């Protein structure tokens, strides 16, 4: 795995001798993700009204049957990493989710797949989170079908809370979330004046308002759930004195792609609170409530304290609302030791914030089950393949292809595309072990994901309307190691996909053509070449993937 580094200044494409290897373990930064909820657990449990004990069950009224609950509307809400996940679910599936609430978190895909950005821009303010670019990236994804149409967000209710004493996710980050939604036409209510620490705010919280400590349930002297639910749903009835419905403990493995929740950093057990009226067939709403780091059921004996202390079950009873409590879980490695939801792309899930994201799809399957749809098979429907570092590189040549040579700056700045300061035009070569695509499966879709490292000029506008294209070769263009002849070697499927303009962060290609899908070599290596259709007449280039491999995602059935 390549290291996650801070953004570098723009570099030229002139030859510089590499001084260090490109990839190192990112253990220190991964461990730092625990800054979201970093204090020890208290010995005392959450002080809440008596709650029903969780009982084994299923997300359908009759285990094994497809008798759905009558669910009219779906909302999401979460705190910290759960707040980021609530927003990801809302934006990615705005055709299903009608509104969201976020305590102590920031805008959609703020981290852009980089833990360093998550820490420095999406929790602290040491780095500009570049809101306008995040918004444009959302529009681009919607245009590519990777998230639902952004028009769905217009007039959706959104509740944002940020405490003035929160030093874990700074208030300007939450303000950016409110601004993000406002720019898409959502109806935002933003509570930014409460002197709260980093926590879910609840009258059942055992902590005083201003602290940041486990169990991260703070009592701030007002009913935040009444404020939140009232904005999302309209006027709500007063909460029940104590919950009287059923708390179901269900198997999350049944909804996880591949059948293993642990492989996604999710727990075996999830929970759903179902009022008697909803179980009896009444029309009800659904709230998906997402805990923060170190609040999951499987985290060091934390148990159901968030489930009991969030003050949602009491409102569920009196307002016809089922509450789904999915559970993240810690990994045994430094990828996610604190059981956070995936909002920066851990465990190699580059699709974490969009359609195809493993945790997102798992939760969406749970929502579907509650509504009566059959969960898809858990044998897995996609595989994401990292490019093979030893066979990646770039080749530079004159515009007519003469004088081709292998580029030398990959280890320092990434893979080059476009025209550099030496007047040469750069094309990038990537290798993928496509033998990992399961045998006997029909490939239905494939696409590439890259991350911009730096650049200069706009190669898409040099000349106007220039296109960044993907060529596919079944096997290798020549030898599988990068060589000068790769610059112009024939492809099995030329111009098989295209990347739209992107000037920061992550970009996803269009879908590979049918010819390219047929060219994926099930027996070994498939190579791909990225290059601009026209040679830029002046300096205009970008570097990609200095700190992480390019990925090829292949979907199949």
UniProtKB/TrEMBL annotation:
GO terms for molecular function: hydrolase activity. GO terms for cellular component: extracellular region. The keyword Signal applies. It comes from the Bacteria. Residues 1-20 are annotated as: Disordered. Residues 1-48 form the signal peptide. Keywords: Hydrolase, Signal. This is Poly (3-hydroxybutyrate) depolymerase.
